[in-house]
Amino acid sequence: MLVQELDTPSLIVDLDVMEANLRRVADYAKQHSLRLRPHTKTHKSIGLARRQIALGAAGLTVAKVTEAEVMAAANPADLLVAYPVFGAPKLRRLTEVARRTKVAVALDSLASATPLSEAAVIASVDIGVMVEVDVGLGRVGVQPAEALALAQTIAALPNLHFRGLTFYPGHIKQPTEALVKALSDTVEKLVQDFHDAGLPPEIVSGGSTPALFHSHKVKGLTEIRPGTYIFNDLNTVHSGACTLEDCAASILTTVVSTRPGHMIIDGGSKTFSSDRLTTGAAGHGRLLEAPGAFFHKMNEEHGFVDLSKAERSFEVGEKVRVIPNHVCVAVNLHEQVYGVRGGRVEEAWKVDARGKLQ
Amino acid sequence: MLVQELDTPSLIVDLDVMEANLRRVADYAKQHSLRLRPHTKTHKSIGLARRQIALGAAGLTVAKVTEAEVMAAANPADLLVAYPVFGAPKLRRLTEVARRTKVAVALDSLASATPLSEAAVIASVDIGVMVEVDVGLGRVGVQPAEALALAQTIAALPNLHFRGLTFYPGHIKQPTEALVKALSDTVEKLVQDFHDAGLPPEIVSGGSTPALFHSHKVKGLTEIRPGTYIFNDLNTVHSGACTLEDCAASILTTVVSTRPGHMIIDGGSKTFSSDRLTTGAAGHGRLLEAPGAFFHKMNEEHGFVDLSKAERSFEVGEKVRVIPNHVCVAVNLHEQVYGVRGGRVEEAWKVDARGKLQ
Q1: Is residue A356 in a domain?
Q2: Are residue B184 and residue B286 in the same domain, yes or no?
């Protein structure tokens, strides 16, 4: 089937570009002796997780217990739930996953670690713990000075074992040498404190896609957890971690209405998500067939495209491809993805971990 | 089960409030002799569509052919696909729906009507057509002066029959008497032109939730298609069409991390959607347990809540309910909805038409 024959809106992935993205990061991790533990939230696909493992990934990362249940099917050697787990329903499911595969949870409080330990005791499983440290984003994570005390307490809790440190440098949207140096200083001191206290972390895990190729400059870092790099998106381009040509995913849409200098496409917030660009700039995506077009507004099923500076005009019924601002949330809105090569649909895969809110 | 026992994040609906919302609008429509054809995009549930029909709805509205396939199960007397339908796959599916129920499509071009007529001929079905008119939003729709010519051409196409006019006054976010008067003048003149030309529209259909209770002031209007009114949301409150107490839907979340004056809840853009308020104001939802809290930022799985002006503090593991900015896109992110009454979960229903992008 030709790409142009797909019904719209459909999420399509250029397989050549995706494969190059996967290789580039696998090679970078090998070159710098960093463990690569990709965050699967971007693709949410068991098949793509398997490809990441085949290329040398040391494990996988997920955000939710329900995602862990899905990704256990990819047989990761080491599965990280990068989110504090609360409540009996989630703890029960987590212990079930821990029977099938080696699991660690990233958390930042004893209020989270204590019930986790109790659940692990009840279920007779061992669960690893990574202490989450806030390195500047102000989201989850203890302050660096508090990490050691929390880790020491956790190390003494039954059926938990302290495995190391996690952080997410999400405050670094456009890496500079100064930002990377500050991050490195924080991490280096943190790791030194743990060594001095006789509790050396087995793993020191950080790294987002924007800061990805600066990871080797962060002293003490042993693992990276990028997610977006498999597809990339406009935010990744603006971060400097890739070029537009490295964006593998786009959304195929149909022009459904036109007026002079303007058109409506059949994709809106239900198709792209309404995530803005991290730069704060306006616009909801880049049209591959007319990069000068301005995708300025969305309703749920309608995309508003200003063509006054576009390279060409469009007629109703024509199909156009749009690179999204933020591919992770866009993937979550689609049931399946079409892998394309040279204008042909080569494969289709299900978004296995779509939804999975709990 | 108690509401507080639900795993999070979960979408909950206060059944007393929802039932009052349904009755209020059904009564309003009856009082003013307006056909009520609710847009099902808000709830996406066959069961709730049946309740709307039981309360007197003359039919249902959907945005997509795949939604029409789902909502045909509610046995509407008249089903409107309020979106131009393009491409053989969608046209084939639409003709299948047309065998099961009376269907009309809202469209704004001959480029859309001609293949629709051809598909109807091939499949030996009759399909109604509503001519979509742009009354100010600048989305889909012909200009009022062009509507008659398009309708006359469509009326002559085989297996299509012209049934009337649709418009969506989405530009009216906060109705004023002047805005409603301008809309009424446009619609009144339009309808008069059709009567003068001997092509009286059977149905003149408009009405969004924000402008809902002004519908009786629009001369010539015979049908309203509100969607959001069943649940309401912060945008509806800001439009003046409801109060905060009329918001039936909220999202139950858990506090997963705290620091002084701030907390993180386990719902972000994957749970609420990243739709901003139509007023342009900041904030991603209103916390029922602390209305002074400011839900200022979201990542996919994290909600950032500033508590510096909140009525109370929170501990990790506590559950809080949040009214979303825009409930339609939030419902689309959930697999199921929990109907609650008096602190207890009374029923749960599947979001039957979730996704359904094509």
Answers
A1: no
A2: no
Specify burial of residue B73 (Cβ count, 10 A radius: 0-12, 13-18, 19+): middle
Question: Using CB atoms, which residue from B86, B271, B317 is nearest to A357?
Answer: B271
Inter-chain residue contact A316 with B112, CB threshold 8 Å: yes
CB contact under 8 A, A264 and B315: no
**Domain check: are B51 and B193 in the same one?**
yes
Q: What percent of chain B has pLDDT over 90?
A: 97
CA torsion A334→A338→A343→A345, rounded to 10°?
-140
Same-domain check for residues B226 and B319? no
CATH number at residue B47: 3.20.20.10
Q: Which of B287, B302, B300 is nearest to B250 (CA)?
A: B287
Does one domain contain both B125 and B107?
yes
Bridge partner list, A107: A131
pLDDT, mean of residues B328-343? 97
Cα separation, B165 vs B180, in Å, equals 18
Cα A317 to chain centroid, rounded: 34
Residues 90-109 (B) with a CB less than 8 A from some CB of A: 90, 108-109
Half-sphere exposure of A329 (CA within 13 A, CB side): 31
Q: What is the pLDDT of residues B305-329, one digit of tens each?
A: 999 999 999 999 999 999 999 999 9
Query: Are A83 and A63 members of one domain?
Result: yes
Give the residue from B232, B264, B283 where a domain finishes.
B232
Residue A236 domain-assigned (yes or no):
no
pLDDT at residue A261 is higher than 80: yes
> Do residues B79 and B127 both lie within one domain?
yes
In a domain, B357, yes or no: no
- Asked whether residue A113 falls in the same domain as residue A226, the answer is yes
Nearest CA in chain B to A142: B259
CA torsion, points A199, A202, A207, A211, in degrees to nearest 10? 80
**Test mutation, B64, B110, B139, chain A, max A CBs within 10 A:** B139
What is the predicted ipTM?
0.96
Instruction: Report how many domains make up chain A.
Output: 2
Q: Which positions in chain A touch B275 (Cβ < 8 Å)?
A: 269, 274
Q: Which residue of B has its CA nearest to A275?
A: B274
Interchain contact, B170 vs A299, CB within 8 Å? yes
Is A166 a member of any domain?
yes
CA distances from A238 to A76, A287, A288, B272 (A): 31, 16, 17, 25
DSSP state of B86: -
Residues 322-341 on A with a CB inside 8 Å of B are 328-329, 332-335
Which range marks the domain in which residue A301 is found? Answer: 3-11+242-350
Q: Does A8 touch chain B (CB under 8 A)?
A: yes
Torsion sign over Cα A217, A218, A223, A227 = negative
- What is this structure's pTM? 0.96
Q: Is A197 on the interface with B (CB under 8 A)?
A: no
Nearest CA in chain A to B115: A317
B84–chain A Cβ distance below 8 A for any pair = yes
Residues A295 and A208 in one domain: no
CB A328 to CB B112 under 8 A? no
